[in-house]
From TrEMBL:
<feature type="domain" description="RNA polymerase sigma factor 70 region 4 type 2">
    <location>
        <begin position="136"/>
        <end position="188"/>
    </location>
</feature>
<keyword id="KW-0804">Transcription</keyword>
<dbReference type="InterPro" id="IPR013325">
    <property type="entry name" value="RNA_pol_sigma_r2"/>
</dbReference>
<dbReference type="GO" id="GO:0016987">
    <property type="term" value="F:sigma factor activity"/>
</dbReference>
<feature type="domain" description="RNA polymerase sigma-70 region 2">
    <location>
        <begin position="31"/>
        <end position="98"/>
    </location>
</feature>
<dbReference type="Pfam" id="PF08281">
    <property type="entry name" value="Sigma70_r4_2"/>
</dbReference>
<protein>
    <recommendedName>
        <fullName>RNA polymerase sigma factor</fullName>
    </recommendedName>
</protein>
<dbReference type="InterPro" id="IPR013324">
    <property type="entry name" value="RNA_pol_sigma_r3/r4-like"/>
</dbReference>
<dbReference type="Pfam" id="PF04542">
    <property type="entry name" value="Sigma70_r2"/>
</dbReference>
<dbReference type="GO" id="GO:0003677">
    <property type="term" value="F:DNA binding"/>
</dbReference>
<keyword id="KW-0805">Transcription regulation</keyword>
<dbReference type="InterPro" id="IPR013249">
    <property type="entry name" value="RNA_pol_sigma70_r4_t2"/>
</dbReference>
<comment type="similarity">
    <text>Belongs to the sigma-70 factor family. ECF subfamily.</text>
</comment>
<dbReference type="InterPro" id="IPR036388">
    <property type="entry name" value="WH-like_DNA-bd_sf"/>
</dbReference>
<keyword id="KW-0238">DNA-binding</keyword>
<dbReference type="InterPro" id="IPR007627">
    <property type="entry name" value="RNA_pol_sigma70_r2"/>
</dbReference>
<dbReference type="GO" id="GO:0006352">
    <property type="term" value="P:DNA-templated transcription initiation"/>
</dbReference>
Length: 196
């Protein structure tokens, strides 16, 4: 039997889980190809460190590989992956806070925007400069958000989760999600306005 090409779009979630549980190596490759970027955005939204986020996501996939047989499929695969990523990221952050090293700068901070923004090409240098300025200001503003607010904002804006999905994912009330997103947007608008 020929192995299917490891792409995100030729395997549905249930089939993927079934093949992962059977230990098929190409299924793990599909899993990584399909979810790596999404999980990286979540990890980065919490840690604000690109290199650490890459390591966290790698650890998430290792954890999934080791524990896939215990996955009961009560929730979807992506929900399970998201929860593991959030927990690993928060654990990393707590560890660094204990060591008084939380306010460090990532060595790749100049590339922050690449994690969240699509690079739309423009031949107009002025437009490119303005876009770059805006993205840098936005990333600075996101960095300044309190952790709980930033997590909810990242899950909503970059992961596309509804308020209800966020509430279930991180075990808070839907109203709390709403107020945190409102707080995040208000603060980001104020920060961006002050940078004009």
């Amino acid at each position: 039997m020929n192995k299917p090409k490891a792409t995100a779009d030729n395997t549905d979630e249930q089939d993927l889980v079934k093949r992962l549980k059977k230990g098929q190596p190409w299924a793990f490759e599909v899993l990584v190809n399909k979810y790596q970027d999404r999980l990286l955005k979540i990890a980065y939204g919490i840690t604000l460190d690109h290199e650490e986020s890459l390591e966290i996501v790698q650890d998430v996939f290792i954890s999934v590989f080791k524990n896939i047989k215990t996955f009961r499929q009560d929730a979807g695969l992506v929900t399970w992956l998201r929860k593991i990523t959030i927990n690993q990221s928060l654990n990393w952050k707590r560890k660094w806070k204990r060591r008084f090293r939380w306010h460090h700068d990532s060595i790749e901070s100049e590339n922050d925007k690449d994690l969240f923004m699509e690079n739309k090409k423009s031949n107009d240098p002025e437009t490119q400069f303005e876009k770059k300025q805006f993205e840098e200001n936005l990333m600075k503003a996101i960095r300044k958000l309190p952790e709980k607010i930033r997590l909810v904002f990242v899950l909503n804006v970059f992961e596309g989760l509804s308020y209800e999905q966020i509430a279930k994912t991180i075990n808070i009330k839907k109203g709390t999600v709403s107020s945190r997103i409102h707080f995040a947007r208000k603060n980001l608008i104020n920060s961006l306005e002050s940078n004009k």
